[in-house]
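Could you show me some protein's one-letter sequence and the numbers that encode its backbone in two labelled lines?

___
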Amino acid sequence: MAPRVYFGFDYKDVKSFRANVVRNHDITKETGEAGFFHASIWEDAELHGSIAVKNLIDRSLENTTVTCILIGSTTWRRRWVRYEILKSYDTGNRLLGVHINGVKDKNQKVFGQGRNPFEYLGFVISHDGKTLIYYEHDGESWKTYQDLPPKSTGFETKWCSRGYKLSAWVPCYDWMSQDGYKNFATWVESAK
């Protein structure tokens, strides 16, 4: 069965057309089903508040197995991208990131590589191994993540009382320099 991919991204990158290059490459090349929603649905959910946005993301993640974060200039600090990442981890989706700033935008411009959002998200396992608490870095310091509650878990004590950044195991690729059109299906298959 082909993996079902959920795409998370900053909507500024859709307006510039860079995110669409990755999202829509599947139209001409089979790499599995892709899950994403149109900007108008997103905007409607935002009008109804944070619970509506979370519900939209939660429903969209259902029946997906991999979450691909399309990384632009400001993706790392976007609240709802952070939620998509941590909710994906929380529900067991495998994760990967794809840098898209090398893709020409609608004005034929490219940009420097954006920060890796997985560097700014992580968790701490309680001393008894029973609770996983999510954290986020705002560019200055680590803080408890507020959009997801702590998760009950059963980690071995050797993993306890320690913090972990998602970047320690989530792979990131560059769409242009690593030939994403050709390699995306392989990246999805090897996501962790």
Remarks:
- Strands lie at 5-9, 34-35, 66-71, 94-99, 121-125, 131-137, 142-144, 151-152, 162-165, 172-174.
- The first helix runs from residue 11 to 15.
- Residues 30-40 have pLDDT under 50 and may be disordered.
